[in-house]
Design goal:
The structure is a single chain. The chain has helices spanning about 15-25, 95-100, 105-120, 135-140, 155-160, 180-185, 200-210, 215-230, 250-255, 265-275; strands spanning about 10-15, 30-35, 40, 60, 85-90, 125, 145, 165-170, 195, 235-240, 260. By secondary structure, it is an alpha/beta fold. The protein folds into two domains: about 10-45, no CATH class; about 60-275, Rossmann fold (3-Layer(aba) Sandwich). It has a four-stranded parallel sheet with strand order 5-4-6-7. A four-stranded parallel sheet has the order 9-8-10-11. It has a three-stranded antiparallel sheet with strand order 1-3-2, with no helix packed on it. Helix 3 (about 105-120) runs parallel beside helix 4 (about 135-140). The protein is globular and about 65 Å long.
Length: about 290
């Protein structure tokens, strides 16, 4: 008879379902011993380190701004159903990034991204779609998955649409969203683009970094820009929001246009699901050491 017991110090007995799975495979799961009675026993519970901060796999590079960030905004931590890490990039004002192509800020973004990864981020994003210009450089520098811009969703969204339909883009500044921004995100240069530039509230507050915003007026700017997009381009079958600050209004826009609306929230929900896939439990999940990296 085996001397192995489920009461043995430093071991944990598998439950009936786990033993059943072990038996059906004809071998124990990794890290177990099997007694002569066919009982699998786990070794001592193990936790592994390698990070400064655990439990927050997504790192977000933030512009240096003080405008209101209501729930739904990428910079409002309550927006996310999972923990995130933030790093503000000093000197990266909305004006400088959106209207001045983030000129002179590359090294600051590289350093900030590296800091997020060193802290514990397993993937990095930014809170401005115009930072697609730095996609390749940041990804090369940090060595983890990087998604700098909501615009990167455009090719995938396009593939989901019926023949003859196109994805259209709403941006905070159509006047400065260049073909280079689109190309850096993998977006076709002829993709329809409309901005809230002509509105009364949204673009002015965000780019001007104002401390107060009339949310109703901001929403109206976005709805009107959406109407303009589908009026000028009736072939649009889905809308992509370039600006991460537009997310709180995505639901209203979807109902207003009766079209699918995608944004940085939809993108990061997908992105995070790859960084931390859901554990569905028994019978698919085997006992394993606790680790993130």
């Amino acid at each position: 008879m085996s001397k192995t017991s489920f009461d043995e110090p430093g071991t944990t007995a598998l439950n009936a379902g786990q033993k059943s799975r072990v038996a059906s495979r004809g071998k124990a799961v990794s890290g177990t011993r099997v007694t002569s009675a066919g009982n699998a026993v786990l070794g001592a519970r193990v936790a592994r380190g390698g990070k400064a901060v655990f439990g927050a796999r997504l790192g977000i590079l933030m512009l240096e701004a003080r405008f209101p960030r209501i729930p739904g905004d990428m910079g409002n931590a309550s927006t996310w159903p999972f923990p995130v890490l933030y790093k503000v990039v000093r000197g990266a004002s909305p004006q400088r990034v959106v209207r001045e192509r983030a000129t002179g800020l590359l090294q600051a973004f590289l350093d900030a991204a590296k800091e997020l990864v060193d802290l514990g981020a397993d993937g990095v994003t930014t809170n401005c779609g115009f930072l697609s210009l730095y996609q390749d450089e940041i990804a090369r520098h940090v060595g983890v998955p990087v998604a700098t811009s909501s615009l990167m969703q455009a090719p995938f969204i396009q593939r989901t649409l019926p023949p003859g339909r196109r994805v259209g883009i709403l941006t905070v500044s159509a006047s400065t969203l260049t073909p280079e921004h689109l190309k850096s995100a993998g977006v076709s240069a002829d993709t329809p683009v409309v901005g809230t530039d002509a509105g009364r509230e949204f673009t002015r507050v965000i780019i001007g970094n104002e401390l107060e915003m009339n949310v109703e007026a901001a929403e109206k700017d976005i709805l009107e820009a959406g109407e303009d997009l589908v009026t000028r381009h009736p072939e649009v079958g889905a809308v992509l929001l370039e600006c991460t600050n537009m997310v709180p209004y995505a639901r209203s826009l979807r109902e207003h246009l009766s079209l699918p609306v995608f944004d940085i929230y939809s993108f990061m929900s997908w992105f995070h699901s790859g960084l931390s896939p859901r554990d569905f439990g028994h019978p698919s999940s085997a006992p394993r050491p606790w680790r993130e990296r």
